[in-house]
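Table S4 entry, tripeptidyl-peptidase II.
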Amino acid sequence: MLLTRLSIVLALTISAWGSPSLSPHVRHETRRSLPHGWVPIRRAPSDTVLPLRIGLVQPNLADIESLLLDVSHPESPNYGNHWSPAKVAQTFRPSKESIDTVYEWLTSEGISASRIKLSNAGSWVEANTTVAEAEDLLRTEYHVYSHASSGVEHIACNMGYHLPEHVTKHVELVTPTLHFDVKHRGSENGLKRRSNSPVAKPGQPGFGPVSPKTTGSIKTILNELENCNEQITPDCIRALYKFVYVPVATKKNSIGIVEYTPQAYVPSDLDMFFTNFSSSQVGQRPTLVGIDGGVVQAIEEGFDLNGESDLDLQYSMALVGKSQPVTLYQTGDEIEGASFNNLLDALDGSFCTFEGGDDPTEDGIYPDPFGGFEGAADCGTVKPAFVISTSYSYNEADLTPSYTARQCAEYAKLGLMGVTILYSSGDNGVAGNSGECLFTGQEQGFGAPNFNPTFPATCPFITSVGATQVNPGAKVTDPESACEQVIFSGGGFSNYFAIPSYQKEAVNSFLTKFPPSYPKTMWNSTGSRAFPDISANGANYVVAVDGEFELVFGTSASSPVSASILSAVNDARLALGKKPIGFINPAIYSFKGAFNDIKNGTNEGCGTQGFSAVEGWDPVTGLGTPNFPLLLAEFLLLP
Ligand SMILES: *[C@@H]1O[C@H](CO)[C@@H](O)[C@H](O)[C@H]1NC(C)=O
Ligand SMILES: *[C@@H]1O[C@H](CO)[C@@H](O)[C@H](O)[C@H]1NC(C)=O
Ligand SMILES: *[C@@H]1O[C@H](CO)[C@@H](O)[C@H](O)[C@H]1NC(C)=O
Ligand SMILES: *[C@@H]1O[C@H](CO)[C@@H](O)[C@H](O)[C@H]1NC(C)=O
């Protein structure tokens, strides 16, 4: 009797949901706040078709930190024993149980098997569903959102979605749901300049506006070491970091710089720069690796389109020298652009989300349905360089925790393969891109009180690079300070990622000796991932842009400069028959004296002074700037 009643209740419950799945739906993912500029305008039409993609849980991901430490911690017997791409793919390939569970769930909800596909790498399940079907599957509501400045519309669900309890442990994330357009189509890349002409602010879904500081471009180059406080040139970098090195293993070594179309370098700008600072390199170009139809576009010009690429390539090429080729990962075609996911697809075939492309609501889709690049999406087609530098970033709060977790795990996989990944830490101190901060409840906005960390800086498996300056009036041999001109070094504490073991001692020491005076509501004081890891000069770079020398500021400069120095360390190790340095964080936090400790300056933002650069690691300049001879010695001592 009891049993019968129970089964009736059960049957009623099931029919109420119109679904035979036996476990209750549980909340799978939520979004804390909308990215900058997006507002809901109406319910999504129920018959709109969505390319629903279900990212399956990858086995062994819970162990990825220890697997990575095993090949990158200096005390590990396996130091330097990096993995092959095949081993990476094999280790993290979703289980048959996960695939079967998701298929059974979908078919039991009325999505016929003929409508369901599995990606090549076996990590995503795809089905085209109507909004009504997706709302039923995910127990959510879809809305149309509009971007304030560009008018672009985007369908996303309202703050959260749900999965049956027995399915949730097999799924990392579902798209399109809470995730917004994250393509890098414009210029919010944290690069600032001094020049005469203010730059237009292009509408940037997913990004805040750029606010360049303008104090005049330069007529005279001061290429003397006495003037490094006013203008940074390659010689200043060499002097600051004792960076003198003649590469010997350039055939084995590799370094890559990432740019997102329509960002483009200007060939004549490289020659203009080389003429004044590295005359033997006039005519030299980076090795172009176009990802998803990436081309160095020359149709549109302007600081916002050329400044980043010109800066990155002029400094990295001059610093590694003529004999070491620099690879340019030019990502995305001119029509659609691309996101970090498009790059990661190209570098690691196991990451590719779906044959024929990524999620059209977020990533560039190739072949381009909008008339751009007609070739197939790059998927595991590009062998990653040993050191890869990127000067683009989001606010962590722009993205959901699951989205950042999946991408961050991918950086760990590249680390397992022996790749060093550097990202600029952001240029707004403790505030996010464009100066936005967080309200309680994680909504972003101008004038909000709480610190707003940047991503991927907060991913524990990349190396985050902050910015320093030669103080006004100071000599190149004087200690640098945290950058306090035009930009402030991005730094702080993640709201998504726990602290990795390699930085616990350094960060705890900072928190004990110099406890920040801010209320704990303003910054994440729970012991989360702290950034940056290291820093390098980011003020007053002389860069040739569109035929003029400009003074450029930003962690955008610090990252490629650090990459060039680390590439020299790889060269020396490769010459001795050793492995490349790979994921450097566990090693650098254990070194003594390999960095110039920065003890002056702050990273203001959110209406505060931010944190202070102090003795030891700090959330402004990290461990400090490279001391190349000592850094080289430390890495050469490792097996
Ligand atoms: C979904 O629709 C697109 C566009 O019509 C098509 O290319 C794709 O193959 C479909 N996917 C599935 C799983 O049916
Ligand atoms: C750059 O070098 C050229 C050739 O040596 C020289 O004529 C020019 O004055 C230099 N430019 C600046 C701005 O110093
Ligand atoms: C602080 O960071 C941790 C991750 O280490 C996270 O779980 C927690 O929610 C964060 N706190 C806030 C207020 O965001
Ligand atoms: C600290 O930095 C400021 C500039 O931001 C500079 O004026 C001051 O001299 C520096 N102090 C020391 C001790 O380096």
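Residues 197 and 214 are 7 Å apart (CA to CA).
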